[in-house]
Amino acid sequence: MEIIIVTGLSGAGKSQAVKGLEDQGYYCVDNMPVALMKDFLELALRNEMGPDKIAFVVDVRGAKMDINLSAGLRKLLKMGIDTKVIFLEASNQTILRRFSETRRVHPVTRNSPSIADIENERKSLKDIRDMADFVIDTSHMKGNRLKREIETLLTKQKEEDVFLINIQSFGYKHGIPIGADIVMDMRFIPNPFYLKTLKKATGNSKKVREYVMKHKEAQEFVKDFSKLVNGNIPLYKREGKYHLNIAFGCTGGQHRSVAMANEFYELFEKQGKQVTLEHRDVNRK
């Protein structure tokens, strides 16, 4: 039997993920309390005609019904059944926009969510996020991309130990990303902001990226850091960790961090790795 647990922030795309899992033949159960999952699985195992692929959706509504949701999930993972946990998240602004566009209310507050509501939900799900096999940032995923992403992850997982790298750029003056495993400071690179021709551009432009990457220190950083990440991936897998969140920061999150995030996104993608990219602060004024 194969079990997938889909969890994460409200508005991050769990409904879309479930549709994709149903298309792949999973029997999907929405928001069953963890305490009842064990009984459900034992019943399914006794029934020869029962489903062999099951996906559970767990969110903050389920957390309200379980005294310790993360402890309950750990007990479930110890049943000896092939189980993977997928955690979905997105930026605060993306979640606010999605709730506004769909006119949905937050499942806990029953109102349109605020930044504080989203941050409280992040904190309540932190332990579950830490134990997830895959953390997927859906901020820039549209249409069926999330479904394709999960299908690719699960297909490759059967063939090999796939490893997901989430790359993010940010500005220090707006705060360090909460979920980053590794934070790299790009403020050692000369700042394009002080050049009149580049000040109003971002690291997504060819000229800014060329300026950032022409410096020897930037080139050496790419070489050394890529070697470090690639060397550590087998060690993460050995410890049961199949995702890594890397955040590149500069002062405002407009130039150097964006250019470097783009550089590593393309580098890891060329190496055949599963990788996502988000520029958190590139559109901030």
How would you describe what is shown here?
Strand 2, helix 2 (34-46) and strand 3 (53-58) form a beta-alpha-beta unit. The protein starts with a strand and ends in a 6-residue tail after the last strand. The protein has two domains: 2-160, P-loop containing nucleotide triphosphate hydrolases (Rossmann fold); 165-279, no CATH class. Helix 2 (34-46) packs parallel to helix 4 (69-77) and helix 9 (206-213) packs across helix 11. It is of the alpha/beta class. Strands 2-3-1-4-5 form a five-stranded parallel β-sheet. The protein has a four-stranded parallel β-sheet with strand order 7-8-6-9, with helices on one face. The mean pLDDT is 86. 44% of the residues lie in helices and 19% in strands. The protein has helices at 14-23, 34-46, 60-65, 69-77, 92-102, 115-124, 126-131, 145-159, 206-213, 216-238, 256-270; strands at residues 2-8, 27-30, 53-58, 82-89, 134-137, 164-171, 182-185, 243-250, 274-279.
Give the total of beta strands.
Answer: 9
Integer average pLDDT: 86
CATH class of the largest domain: Alpha Beta
Largest sheet, strands/sense/barrel: 5 strands, parallel
List keywords for this structure.
19% strand; alpha/beta; Rossmann fold; 5-stranded parallel beta sheet; 2 domains; 9 strands; 285 residues
What is the gist of this entry?
The chain has 285 residues and is α/β, with parallel strands linked by helices. The chain has 11 helices and 9 strands. α1 packs across α8 (145-159) and α9 packs across α11 (256-270).
Mind sketching the topology for me?
Layout: E1 2-8, H1 14-23, E2 27-30, H2 34-46, E3 53-58, H3 60-65, H4 69-77, E4 82-89, H5 92-102, H6 115-124, H7 126-131, E5 134-137, H8 145-159, E6 164-171, E7 182-185, H9 206-213, H10 216-238, E8 243-250, H11 256-270, E9 274-279
Parallel strand pairs: 1-3, 1-4, 2-3, 4-5, 6-8, 6-9, 7-8
Helix pairs in contact: 1-8, 2-4, 9-11
